[in-house]
Amino acid sequence: MRVTMVHERLTEIAGSENVVAEMFREWPDAPISIPIVDPRVQACFASQVKTGRLSALYRAAGYRSYAPLLPLVPAWLRRRDFSNADVAVISHHAFGIAAVHAAHSIPTVAYVHSPARWAWDKKMRIDETDSRAGRIALDALSALAIRTELSAAPAVTSIVANSGAVAQRIKRHWDRDAQVVHPPVDVDFYTPDAAEAREDYFLLPGRLVAYKRPDVAVRAAVRAGVKLVVAGHGRDADKCRRLAENGHVEFLGRVSDTELRSLYRRAKAMVMPGEEDFGITPVEAMACGTPVIALGVGGALDSVVEGLTGTFVHGSDDEAMVSGFADTLAAFDGSHFDPAQIRCHAEGFSRSAFRRKMAEVVRVTVERGAA
After folding, report:
1. Has residue 123 got a pLDDT over 80?
2. 3-state secondary structure (DSSP) of residue 363
3. How many domains does the chain have?
4. Based on the domain organization, do 362 and 345 belong to the same domain?
5. Distance from C-alpha of 148 to C-alpha of 98, rounded to nearest angstrom
């Protein structure tokens, strides 16, 4: 079976790039069309990447920002030639699905990390920029993303969502049904270690950006009088430091994977205060036998099991969320959780499980197309 793949950009290694990496391991001969590529980013699938003039423009701009190039991505993808493939597998964030127009003669599978959440949710755009010019530009880009999705979604043969929450968004925005295949997590690296004893702190890992709500975790920890270790960086870092002035909050900045694993192993629990499409970090924590305290919405509902691998906090507004997390942190007793059971649950999100499920989706899609 000749597979071709599409990904929107390669400017960093994050969750969606790990998805593409596992697809590459399943189909190592598949070319991967990516319109915007930073060649300094080391990806295991770099040898298969096919790019073009948008990457040249990105290089000419000194790799400062890919955002001005995003409006050109749909047109670039529509001009791809997939005539030598039996199926196209598309990794979609906002514009990747435009490639379906180039694959009109073959079946397509779209792995949807989410419909462009920032495009469909105006509140997310408000949180992204403070300038009027920035808001105007982001509103225009959002309109293009929505048009691109609505134009392409009806033509996709099979749609795969990375969580139940994303499947619901796909149904709401695109009026398409989607099956769920959770993203791959490296549960072979993130493991428990009895030699690393539990310590008296909660862990907040990941980027410090508005939609992940690190401010909620910091405010809750200060209110509860507990220690919070923050492992990550982002544009909300200074805001979080100001909120933490009267509390016991330690900011580590970016840490290596090995350091993060050690932090997971020693934490009382991981804190997840924002709504994620799926959320890789809670599964990494659980793979280390560590329970998760999560906001009870979005992707966390797919990964965290109440009372078995963690607990949920609910709140309809900021104050209710902060209060809920503060109460939970103050009363949290990790002895109620079995690290072995938590680890066993996390193993269901392994990289091999992801590859097996995606291979089956693609096989069935191609067979139906040939029938």
Report:
1. no
2. helix
3. 2
4. no
5. 6
